[in-house]
Amino acid sequence: MELVKLGKKTYYIKNRTNIGVYQIDSESVYLIDTGNDSDAGKKILKIMDENGWIVKGIINTHSHADHIGGNSLIQKKTGCSIYLYGSEVGFTEYPILEPAFLYGAFPPSSLQNKFLLAKGSKVESIENHLPEGLEMFHLKGHSYDMIGIKTSDDVYFLGDSLLSEETISKHHLFFLYDVKEFLNTLDFLNTLDGNFYVLSHGEVTSDISSLISLNRRKVLEIIEKVQEFCYQKEKTFEELLKYMFDTYHQTMNMNQFVLYGSVLRAYLSYLYNEGRLDYLFHENRMFWRKNC
Questions:
Q1: Do residues 44 and 19 touch, judged by C-beta distance below 8 A?
Q2: How far apart are CA 262 and CA 244, in angstroms?
Q3: Which residues on neighbouring strands pair with residue 247, listed in sequence order?
């Protein structure tokens, strides 16, 4: 982990999941996300000690395990408060909900891993708890009620509202909860005017316009692929899932099965709600097809 200064009060810790640091006075800071696990939490606290800082609070952009993984350890060590917005609060207090949501029932033990299941922590709603110098804005689409944070240095922490070129090239089907809201968020991101933008996974940049275009193109590409596959002949969800794995040269495992499966259901919901796909049941099997 490397601490990088972006403004008078704003820093970030370069990590697999980038971590924001905002100095509210000479001794106290707020963190924005905490990484994947307790090891990340320990390294964060080491950096805090080296700079003579105390963690006053944690703001999580959303409740996915790679963003809240250090919460529990840091809270136990410092007694700090942790803030999220909306339904993200419940998923952070009861993180078993994340793999349960992806699987659709109590998850098998193979899904109860650090990539999908963090340790729970005591959480409060961020509303009316933002310290001076920070602003919150909504970034729906990737998760239920994800938020972003703007600092007084005009630095924007964008969570997973934008995926890096490397991530898109590697995975193609990056995680989305609501396709329509994700596209709306891309429109909103086009209106921002900041000095720096911190993606959770990727390099800090002063210009996100090309990334916005890249993310939009990939989402529209997947919409077309799903639609065209189901237009050829009515298809089951399992047929569509295999087709997308094969198309993007991915290898299925249990984590990928539930993550990709959830993403594809989001795309099917979008296409159904837009009137572009329909479904039918035949001999106790569900099929997706062109809306007649």
A1: yes
A2: 13
A3: none
pLDDT tens sequence for the chain (292 residues): 899 999 999 999 999 999 999 999 999 999 999 999 999 999 999 999 999 999 999 999 999 999 999 999 999 999 999 999 999 999 999 999 999 999 999 999 999 998 999 999 999 999 989 999 999 999 999 999 999 999 999 999 999 999 999 999 999 999 999 999 999 999 999 999 999 999 999 999 999 999 999 999 999 999 999 999 999 999 999 999 999 999 999 999 999 999 999 999 999 999 999 999 999 999 999 999 998 7
Quote the CA–CA distance of 176 and 168 in Å, as a whole number.
Answer: 13
Is residue 264 within 8 Å of residue 230, measured between CB atoms? no
Determine the distance from the C-alpha atom of residue 81 to the mean position of all C-alpha atoms in its chain, rounded to a whole number.
21
Nearest to 257 by CA among 110, 92, 97, 88: 110
Length of the chain: 292
pTM above 0.90, yes or no: yes
Say whether 14 sits in a helix, a strand or coil.
strand
Sequence-ordered list of residues with C-beta below 8 angstroms from that of 48, at least 6 positions apart, any chain: 29, 54, 55
d(CA 33, CA 174): 20
Shortest CA distance to 3 belongs to which of 49, 37, 36, 66? 49
The rounded distance, in Å, linking the Cα atoms of 149 and 194 is 12
Q: How far apart are CA 52 and CA 114, in angstroms?
A: 30
